[in-house]
C-alpha cells in the first residue's frame, strides 16, 4: 500500500499570513472581527493585501441601494510586502494568487531548504520567516500542483466585466487572463519552477479532498516527488452578495491553505494521510444529509486523543446535516469557519491545515476532517501521527471503514 | 475510499469509447458533425446572443440549440434552470449515454472540463446585482447554477445516476484533461466506466476578453496559414463514455475506438503565450506516445490545437516537427477550429470525438480556410476532403496558463 505523508502546511487567513496565525486564532476560539464590504454604487474602494481594487462601477446605478448587511473577514495586509511579489509573473496578479503563493511557499519551506542545486523559488532578498524555515530533506526534483477553487478569480472578473459593460472597446487586455480559473496554478507553477504536473479543480469546498487524493495518486504512481494541494479564494462584493442569498448568517472570508504531500517519511512533518472517504455526491436520490451520514460512516469510530476539524459555520440550516452526522462525536473539535468565516475552498484548506498542524504539534494523535460541501458532495479525511499510524488503525479495504 | 488506494491492476485495462455525444455549430450529434468536419465546412456567423457592436470582431461559431432537450429524468423546473452551457453539456452527455446504452443502475464517475461553466448566469447575476440591487429575483438560482459542479449534478440527475464529479479547469486543455483523467481512473482500477467530456458556451466576458487581447481574427481563422491573424471563438460540448474493454464486451457494447495514450505537461513560459520552441507541447506529445507505446511513425493524423494565432501555431508546428522528425513531412495535420472555432474547455473533448469519427469512418478532417502554407510548417495540412487509412490519431490541446494535454486514440476493428 502506498503511504502518503504531509511534508508541510501553509495558510493565509483573516488571522494572518502563516499557520502560526491560524493556529493562534483557532486556539483563541473567538470569531475574528468583521469589516463592511463595499458594493456597487457606493463608489468606494477597499484594500486587499496592499493592493487597491476599484472594482466597483462609478456610474450612478438605476436605483438607490438598500444595503444588505455585507460583512467580510478579509486577510490583513502583511507586515512586510511578501518577497514573492517581486517575481515578474506575480506583479499584476490578484489576491487569490498572493494567498495561494504564500500558503504554498510556507508548505514547501521544509522541502526546499538546503537542498544542493535546488531551484524551487529562488530565495528572494527579503524572504518571509517561513520562507527561511525548514530543514534538510531529500531532494525533490518534480512537484505536482493541484489548485482547488470554488469562486476563483472574482476580483479581476468583476473588474473586466465592469469595464466591458462600460465599453468593450476599451476593456483592459491585462485583466482578462487573470480571470481564468487556471491563472493561479499557472503563476504558482512558474514561481515554484519545479512543477511538472498541474491541475486546477473547480467544485464545492469538499473538492479540496479530491485534490488531496489526486496528489496522493500522482505520488503513488511516482509521477512527482512531492505534491502541493492549494485551496484559495478572494472576496468581493459579488461573492458576499451571493452568499447572502444562500447562507445569510455566513461572513465571507478570503485566504488560502496548502498541504505539501510526499511519499518519503523522512520528508514528513510527522503526519500521515490515513484515509479519504468516497465522494458522496448529492443528487435527487442522495440528499446532503444522507451524504454527510455516509461520509461519517466511512470514517468510522474515533479513538481517544483524536480531533475533529469540522466545517460548521454560522448557519443552523446549513450546518444541520454535518451536525447530525457527527452528533455522536464526544472528542475535541474545532470549527475554523466559526472563527475565520466562510472561506469556501480556502476554508476547506484551513480545516485540513489545522488538522495536520494539530497532529504535527503532537497535541493529538489523529485528526478527522469533515467537509460537507455546499452543493456537490461530502468527503471526509483522517490524518494521524506518522509514527503511530500502523498501530492505531486498520483499514478494511473491502468495506472502506477504518476501525480503531 | 478515495484513499488508501486499492491495489492497481497488474496490467492496466484497455479503455474503449462506446458512446460519443457532440454539439457544435455544425450541428448536434455524430452525423451532421461528421459530414461537416469531413468537408471542412466553416460554421461562423454574426454573434446573436449578445451585443458585439463595439467589438473588433463580430462573428463566432454559435450553436443552434433545439427548443426541447432530449427526454431525461430532470423535472421541468430543473430544465428551466439550465443555462446555454448546461443545455449543451446535457445534449452531449445524453448523446453519449444513449449511444453507449449504459443503464441508470450503473455507478458512473463524471469528469468534466470547462473554463467558464455557467458564465452567462454569472453575467446576469452581476448585471442585476450592480444595476438593480434591490431586485432579488432569480439571483439565488443563478448563484448556484453558474457553478460547474452543479451543472455536473444536473447531468447525473438527468441520467438518473449517481457518482463522483470531478471538474477540471485547465483552461483550453480542460476537455482533453477530462478525458485523460477519466482514462487514468479506469486504468488505475478506480472506476470501470466514466462519462467524460468538456463544454463551454459563448459568453460576453470571454468574447470580450479575447477581443481585448486582440487574439481574435478580424478576417478568417486560418490555422498554420502564413497569413493567419488570430483565432475564432465557438461554443459546444462533447462527451464520451469510457469503459474497460472487458466491460464493453461483457455487455455487448459497440466500440467506437480506443484511448491508448494521454500526456500532460505544464508550460512555465507565460500566462498566455506558449514557449516559442513548443517545449511543453513536445513533452505532452512524448509522454502520451510513451504511455501508448507508439512512435510518430504509428500516427496517421494529428488534430492540432491550431488556434490560428501567430504564436500558438508556430510553437505547435515546431513541437510537431521536433517530435515527428522524419515523419513530419508526410504526417497529415489539420485544425478543426477553422470550422467550429475555439471551444475553450470543450475543445479537447470535441476534437477527441472528431478523431473518433476519422478513425471510424476512415477520412481525414479537412481544415477550412487554408491557402498559403506557412513555410515554418513542414507537415502537410489537410485542407480538402480526403479518405485515408487512419489507425491512430493524436489530438493536441494547449491551455491558457500553460497546461498542455495530448490524447492518442486508436481505431477499433
Notes on the protein architecture:
The complex is a heterodimer of chains A (404) and B (413). Chain A is of the alpha/beta class and 404 residues long. Chain A folds into 2 domains: 4-267, Thiolase/Chalcone synthase (Peroxisomal Thiolase, Chain A, domain 1); 271-403, Peroxisomal Thiolase, Chain A, domain 1 (3-Layer(aba) Sandwich), CATH 3.40.47. In chain A, 31% of the residues lie in helices and 22% in strands. Chain A has helices at residues 19-28, 95-112, 129-132, 154-166, 183-192, 207-220, 237-246, 288-299, 316-325, 336-340, 345-360, 389-392, and strands spanning 4-12, 35-36, 46-48, 51-53, 71-73, 143-149, 195-202, 226-233, 252-253, 255-262, 271-276, 280-281, 306-309, 333-334, 366-372, 377-385, 394-395, 402-403. Chain A is globular. Chain A starts with a strand and ends with a strand. The model of chain A is unreliable at 43-65, 116-137 and 389-404 (pLDDT under 50). Chain B is of the alpha/beta class and 413 residues long. Chain B folds into 2 domains: 15-250, Peroxisomal Thiolase, Chain A, domain 1 (3-Layer(aba) Sandwich), CATH 3.40.47.10; 262-410, Peroxisomal Thiolase, Chain A, domain 1, CATH 3.40.47. Chain B is built from 13 helices and 15 strands. Chain B has helices at residues 30-39, 76-81, 84-100, 119-131, 139-145, 148-159, 174-187, 204-212, 245-250, 279-292, 310-324, 337-340, 347-361; strands at 15-24, 27-28, 45-46, 59-60, 109-113, 165-168, 193-200, 236-244, 257-266, 301-303, 333-334, 363-364, 386-387, 392-398, 403-410. In chain B, the strands form 3 sheets. In chain B, strands 1, 2, 5, 6, 7, 8, 9, 10, 11, 14 and 15 form an 11-stranded mixed β-sheet that branches. In chain B, strand 10 (301-303), helix 11 (310-324) and strand 11 (333-334) form a beta-alpha-beta unit. In chain B, helix 4 runs antiparallel to helix 5 (139-145), helix 7 crosses helix 13 (347-361) and helix 10 packs across helix 11 (310-324). The two termini of chain B are 36 Å apart. The chains are: A alpha/beta (404), B alpha/beta (413). At the A-B interface, helix 4, helix 5, strand 7, helix 6 and helix 7 of A face helix 4, helix 5, helix 6, strand 6 and helix 8 of B.
